[in-house]
TrEMBL record, chain A:
Biological classification of the source: Bacteria, Pseudomonadati, Bacteroidota, Flavobacteriia, Flavobacteriales
All residue ranges annotated as the HTH cro/C1-type domain in the record: 7-62
Pfam families: HTH_26
Protein's UniProt name: Helix-turn-helix transcriptional regulator
Species this protein is from: Gillisia lutea
Signal peptide segment: none
SUPFAM superfamilies given in the database record: lambda repressor-like DNA-binding domains
TrEMBL record, chain B:
Entry keyword Membrane: yes
The protein, known as: DUF2975 domain-containing protein
Organism in which the protein naturally occurs: Gillisia lutea
Pfam family, one: DUF2975
Transmembrane segments: 12-33, 53-76, 96-118, 138-156
Domain of life: Bacteria
Alphabetically ordered keywords of this record: Membrane, Transmembrane, Transmembrane helix
Length: 69, 170
């Protein structure tokens, strides 16, 4: 998919673990893993909003478009 | 979703009866072993009393079509049983829908060709008629059922991708 998810980078910046983020935004670690590994086909606005709130970032910090993929 | 128990039962009964019909050549052989009198066989509403090369071919084709129908019912049973596992839009279901549809079309066309051949062999004339009657036993209706099964396979394939997309939405 041409959309990259930079969740790993943001978690590293905020010094936060995946499980902590999963708890904070109330989704399962399995679903967060799907998002992190780029297997997700879609993301709900509510999930994106919750991640942005927990990581104090913008959607653009998490998602990136790449034409090479 | 409730499993289709009634449908499964009906298909089981249908499969059992069709399996019994597969033993008809055996009955024929036993009859010939025990009696000298010819056994009247009815094929496409025509009575066969004499056996020659052509009538034997007709009987073999008719028997092959019966085997196809038994296999269709077997596949339908398999398909219905797969719904009992509470798994929907699986690869197995998609391929079964497609295969059942193709086999229905194959059997219908074979039956049509056989009816032409029967007219040619038994009535010594060439002829066919297209008609739509009130029963389910007509060419176009059965062909439509076969095509509908193939279309259901395509629908299940589409549903499978939608389900995958839904499952991978975070």
């Amino acid at each position: 998919m041409a959309i990259l998810v930079n969740l790993d980078r943001m978690l590293e910046k905020r010094n936060m673990k995946s499980s902590e983020l999963a708890d904070a935004i109330n989704i399962t670690t399995a679903n967060l893993s799907i998002l992190k590994t780029g297997k997700a086909k879609a993301i709900r606005f509510s999930t994106l909003e919750a991640i942005c709130e927990a990581l104090k970032c913008q959607p653009g910090d998490l998602l990136e478009y790449s034409s090479e993929l | 979703m409730k499993p289709p128990v009634l449908l499964k039962t009906i298909l089981d009964i249908c499969f059992f009866l069709l399996i019994c019909s597969l033993f008809s050549p055996l009955e024929l052989l036993i009859h010939f072993q025990m009696n000298d009198s010819p056994l009247p066989i009815e094929l496409n509403n025509r009575l066969i009393t004499t056996f020659n090369y052509n009538t034997i071919i007709l009987l073999i084709i008719n028997y092959s079509i019966t085997i196809i129908y038994v296999y269709i019912v077997y596949l339908l049973r398999k398909l219905v049983r797969s719904f009992f596992k509470n798994a929907y839009f699986t690869r197995l279901q998609i391929s079964l829908f497609r295969l059942i549809g193709q086999l229905i079309i194959l059997a219908t066309i074979s039956e049509f060709i056989m009816s032409l051949y029967t007219t040619l062999v038994l009535d010594k004339r060439i002829g066919f008629n297209f008609s739509i009657d009130g029963s389910h036993n007509n060419l176009f209706y059965t062909l439509a059922i076969g095509l509908f099964f193939i279309y259901l396979g395509k629908l299940f394939n589409k549903s499978k991708s939608l389900q995958e997309e839904n499952e991978l939405t975070v």
